[in-house]
Amino acid sequence: MTSTNPTITAQRREPSPFWRQSLASGAAGIALLHIADARAGRTPWPEVHRWITVMTHDPVTADTTAGLFHGAPAVAFVLRHAAHPSYVTALDTLDRHISDLVTRRLAVAHQRIDQGLPPRLGEFDLINGLTGIGAYLLLHRGSQEGLVREVLAYLVRLATEPVFVNGRQLPGWWTTNAPNDRPSPQWSGGHANLGIAHGIAGPLALLAHAAILGITVPGHAETIDRIYSWLDHWRSGTPTRPWWPGLLRPEEWHRGSVDQPGPQRPSWCYGTPGIARAQQLAAMALDHQHKQRAAEHALATCVTDPGQLALLRDASLCHGWAGLVQTTRHVAADAGPDSELAALLPHLNTRFTQQHPHTRQPATGDGLLEGTTGIELTRHPTPGFAWDACLLIASPTTGTPDTEGIG
Known about the structure:
Elements: H1 6-13, H2 17-20, H3 27-39, H4 45-55, H5 72-82, H6 88-114, H7 121-124, H8 130-139, H9 141-160, E1 163-165, E2 168-170, E3 192-193, H10 201-212, H11 220-233, E4 236-238, E5 241-243, E6 247-248, H12 250-255, H13 272-286, H14 289-303, H15 306-309, H16 321-335, H17 340-355, H18 372-379
Antiparallel strand pairs: 1-2, 3-6, 4-5
Helix pairs in contact: 3-4, 3-5, 3-18, 5-6, 6-9, 8-9, 8-10, 9-11, 10-11, 10-13, 11-13, 13-14, 13-16, 14-16, 14-17, 16-17, 16-18
């Protein structure tokens, strides 16, 4: 994967601006991998320059479709991790556009709340929405703290003010769309998404990160507690085998129990790992040690459950082994060196290394979320390099990357 010639890749793909500026599946994610490899001495720094050139070949998208994993925020996220003086001017320009983008998106979101309408997932989620852009802003909070607070205030409102669907009250983050964020007759009443990638666990993780860093807004702690309690209510299974559903239909929400027969795959995006990390961060923000231990225990039972692990079909970061391992590393680090998870981690790392070439489904391309880039970043950690801040699982103490020069 490393030292790939970007010109050859570009010719093979006939890349679009979307691919070039995609952190999820394109050149932006691949550039991030090369930065990590260069910092660890595995790749020469000129290779980083070449991939950043590929990423920025076309005008960078900064319209309302841009989010952390595509367009200006994605490109800025990568350039901040490159941390080179030659990118300072470009970052200043990008940040001005991102500030305008956030202001516009917040205005639309608040107008939607004022009208009492349910949101699209892409309004608030981590992948496409304001939670993801807020995660980027939090990286360099010194100059953007005011805008970070505006995003946090919106998330408080999202979780506080209910919506009404078919005459029945539902939480403010309930969407009337299908899981693909489009209307569908199969999802006529919409759904609640609990996952960290597209659901309410993402806003919870961002609110917790900000609180741990000392950045709060009115109603902040109460909102963290409210979302934690929602997730706690929907924890299913048994005390020795807890799990969460990724999605809830209206009838499940109103009844207060799930129809689903058992655990889904233990993925970062929708499964127990991402939700447990969000709950752990929330408990840390509120200094609730009992709740923190409960979240950590939920993940520990997940990584020791052969039935749940058997549901993983690939090695990817989004919904495979890499996401489970990377999330567990962070949960274990905050649980402490004497924790159950810390003891389980070496075996899990070994199993990931052994499973990677033998998974039932190969990686989808060379992207970050579903391809080999995310797998390689997980397999070869670079100390002090928080590339996974985009997943909201990295340590909240990690701020703007340092300014180590590119050779």
